[in-house]
Amino acid sequence: MKKTILLAILVSALAVMMCTTGIHPASADISGTPSWIGQEHDEDPYNNYGSVTAFPENTEAILMVRVYNSLSPDLNVSAVKVNMDWTNENYSSPDCSKANPVVLSQYSYRTFTVNFTVPSTSVASNRFKHYYTVIVEEVDAAGKVSRDDTFLGYGFTVYSTVQKEAQLLYDEIKILNKTTTPTFTSVEAQTLWFSGTMYYEMGEDSHKSGNFDSAKTHYEDALDLLNQAIATEATYDQDWQDYSDNYTRQMMAAQLREQEANATYLEALGDAAMREADATFALAQASMTQAYAWIVFGIGFAIFGVAAVVWASKRPSPK
Questions:
Q1: Nearest Cα to 110, choosing from 26, 29, 24, 25?
Q2: Contact criterion met (CB below 8 Å) for 55 and 118
Q3: Domain carrying residue 191
Q4: Residues 241, 195: contact at Cβ < 8 Å?
Q5: Which of 159, 181, 210 is the last residue of a domain?
Q6: How far are the Cα atoms of 79, 144, 146 from residue 149, in angstroms, in the given order?
Q7: Which of 71, 103, 180, 273 sits between 20 and 30 A of 49, alpha carbons compared?
Q8: How crowded is residue 228: how many other Cβ atoms within 10 Å of its Cβ?
Q9: 259 or 39: which leads in pLDDT
Q10: How far is it, in rounded angstroms, from Cα 35 to Cα 51?
Q11: pTM for the full predicted model
Q12: CA distance 207 to 16
C-alpha cells in the first residue's frame, strides 16, 4: 500500500514538472564564447609570451554576446550583462531591458553588445588576468524575470598606460626583426644594430618582470638604434652604388677614348702608308722620266754621230 502511495506521489510530481515545462519551455542560450573587442597582441612578455586581448585603463571595453533561442515559443530577452571580478555591479547591454525586451523566435540568434569603461589599475589590477560572468535573463508575460544562461570566462587583461606603450613598442620591434635581415655591409650599421639588439633584450627583461617604465625606455632606445642601422646601411649602399655607377661610367668613357685613339692611330698609319706610297710612285715616275731623257739623249747623240760620218764621207778631199 505504501509503495502504491509513493509511486503515485512520484508520478504526480513528474506530471507537475512536465506541465511546468510545457508552460515555460523557452531557453536563452549563450552561443559560443563571448568575444571581447580590444587591443590584440600575439606575444605579451609579461603574460608568458601568450596571446592577449588587452584593455588599457580608462578606455572602453566591448563584449559581444550571441544569444540563441533553442526552444519555443518566443523568448523575451530582458537583460544581457557581465559581472567583472573587481566589482559587485553588472555592466548591462543597452540593447534590451525588462521594459523593452528583445523577442527571439524559435531557433533564431541575436548578438548583444555590452560596453563599459575600464577603471584604473588601482581598481582593475594589471598584474593578473580577470574572471568574468556573462548573464542572460528573460521575462515572461507576467513580468517575472528568470536567469536562463550564464557563462564563466577568464582572461580579461588590463594594461596600465605605460604598459600599453611598452607593449606597442615591443610589437613594433618584433615586426622590424621579422622584416629586416641584419646582413649589413657597413661596419657602422652593424654596430648600431648590435647596440639596438642589446637595448631590446634589456627592455624584454624589464617587461617580463613587470617593470614597464624601464621596458618602455629600453624599447625606445632600441628602436631608435635599429632604425639608425637600417638608414646607415641604406646610405652606405647608395654611396657604394653611386661610386660603382661612376666607376662604370669612367671605365666606359676611358674605353671609348681608347677606341677613338686606336682609330686615330690606325687612320694615321693609313695616311702615312699612303703618303709613303705616293712618294715611292713619284720617285718611280722621276726615275722613268730620267730614263726617258737618257734614252732621248742617247738617240740624239747616235743620230749626231751618224750625221758626222756621212758628212765626213762626202767632204771633198784636199788637193
A1: 29
A2: yes
A3: 162-319
A4: no
A5: 159
A6: 11, 16, 9
A7: 180
A8: 17
A9: 39
A10: 14
A11: 0.66
A12: 61
